Amino acid sequence: MLQDLRKSTQGTTAKVVVGLIVVTFALFGVESIVGGMGGEPEVAEVNGEAIVESEYARAVEGKRRQILAQMGEFADADLIDDNLLRSSVLEGLIEEKVLIQDAIGKDLFVADQAIDNYIRSAEHFKIDGAFSNERMQTLLRNAGLTLQGYRESLRKEFIVAQPRSALIASSFVLVAERDEVVSLDRQTRSFGSLVVLKSEYLDSIVVSDDEVRAYYDANQTDFVKPKSADVSYVEIDKIKLAATVDVTEKEIRALYDSEKQEYEGEEQREAAHILLKINDERTDEQALAEINALRDQLLAGAEFSTLAKEKSEDDGSASEGGSLGFAGRGVYVADFEDALYSLKEGGLSAPVKTEFGYHLIKLEKVEASDVPSFDEAKPSLAERLRDQKSSEEYSILAERLADISYASSDLREPSEELELEYMQLAGVSSETQDPVFSNLKVQRVLFSDEIVKEQNNSEFIELEYGRGLVFHVDTMYPEGIRTYEEVSAQVRILLSEEKTAEFAESVGQAFIARIMAGEGPELVAEDMGLKWSTHEDIARNDVELDGELVARVFSAKKSEANGGGVFGYKSLSGNFAVVRLNKILSGEPSELPEADLVSINRLIGDGFGAISYRNYKQVLAASAEVTKI
Question: Distance of CA 142 to CAs 16, 118, 147, 328, 629, Å?
Fold first, then answer.
């Protein structure tokens, strides 16, 4: 179970969860760590209350992690504008400080039970749908947090949310306002339409060489060729290195033997505990006396889980009878772990003091890890050894390449000395499609003065983990205008597109003229080789018809209904569409189910409430005394 837990806390999802926890903690729970540290540098002051540098730094790092997590597998910290990040985080901290001060001033609070219920229902603390104390503790520990600190951060977050919830809940909507929204939202429109496809007229247009030349001469700024360079480069790829790495049976056996001992020595222990806290209401001596009294009850035959539910002050485990589930070494704080591993199955500890208070620990069960056979483990062990060796070789080569290329005038010497392929690529620019030189890390330095003017080799650039390069600009080409020969085919296509679109529009306008003159659209369409379609009672959220067509129909004025409005438009694809609006029916609130009316009412009310809350925050911000240091 612990192995599964460890895997689940090392994946991408877990990293995102940890990042979100860190962001929450950074914004709402920093003082649980830094509180009481006098003289710490301040970055801002809000109504006389400081935002200290450590709080700010933690929030910046938390936001940075969140952004990188959103970037996914292609995350690149260099893409984050540090100044913008810091500025936005500071503004966010100031706003949060104002809101927290306002909430505290209104004596808002959140019950402990509500926080515990949130924690126990959080999906990121569950395994197979059930709350897991081990997973919670591991995720919090990976984020550098304690349960107490996390609970306090949630408390502040929930308190700050109360004014917003109250404003939204207290907003109201008049029946007339709701009915007006229903009338528009549930409106339907009936219409006829056709599309004149520009592609149908390719054979009807001709683009001459003179037209192509004239367009090129008149629009040369559209054909600017960016500066470019011919480059040489040397690349190191860990995957390619791995293919050349030899792994011996002896090495695999040695790794197996060492890990076999770890498997045999790694056991998981199912523990339960009762916690009594030391606080303003209970001294150390009183807590020790109470925990000893509870131990006496247990030794006299009291049920551990029953006593834990009644007396334990661990919010995460008390309702589970004190159960902490299975865990291996390294999960608990040192004193707790030492006591747990000194017990025999079923044993009860003496009182154990930790930073959380006094504990009584019971060892429920011990499970030893299953040890796979050598043949079962061999493929994965060989792959790990190969990966390890290729990683080591990659690191050594990368360092040597960086050193040698720094002292070399070009890359031939490093290539020969390290036996790496010397490669060249012509015409590299900001528009290049080459997977290596289109990389943003390369593009950022490609035309830097150090590389172009001083003719230095680049630094070693790691494109991604296990793959990097050094490059040299051999020849530079300035920005210029592409020749007529380079772009004539492109211009011919462009002019063809324009001409066919114009032709399609002229056909559409001729169709509109005949309809406006009184002819029937079906007959005119048939006569012109077009297809007229009719659409009845189409809603504005219709997904079967073309979205652009529906949007155009619902943007038409009511006065254009009853056949009085025939209009055409050039679509985004360059075709020409004609629409005749026949009928508009407003939505009728009386025809909607009560549940739909309630939902619409709530949606409108939430919108009004959100506006009220935005105004509320603006008033608080305007009245706050803020000093940025």
Answer: 12, 20, 12, 15, 32
